[in-house]
Amino acid sequence: MQAYRVETVVAQDGTLTIKGIPFRSGEKVEVIILSRSHELKKEELYSLRGKPIRYLEPFESVAENDWEVLR
Predict the structure, then answer these.
(1) What CA–CA distance (Å, rounded) separates 41 from 33?
(2) Domain residue spans in the chain?
(3) DSSP state for residue 67 in the 8-state scheme
(4) Longest dimension (CA), the chain
(5) What is the model's pTM?
(6) Please, what is the end-to-end C-alpha distance for the chain in angstroms?
(7) Which of 15, 27, 33, 66 is 20 to 30 Å apart from 43, CA to CA?
(8) Helix (H, G, I), strand (E, B), or coil: what is residue 3?
(9) Are 18 and 35 a contacting pair, CB within 8 Å?
(10) What is the pLDDT of residue 12?
(11) How far does Cα 45 stand from its chain's mean position?
């Protein structure tokens, strides 16, 4: 299946026009429309970037008390 992506704007009458698509006339295609009204900012994508990292017990085993095998 070949995928083709294009961004366009909905016209006043609620129609979309896409020109120059790389498919033959009469070929069946599937159309999925996604809203792009809210684009994530770089700060939203990487919300922990630049935050301090703190290791409480860096040389201790991870969750050793929670292991059922050790009981």
Answers:
(1) 22
(2) 40-71
(3) -
(4) 69
(5) 0.44
(6) 53
(7) 33
(8) coil
(9) no
(10) 94
(11) 10
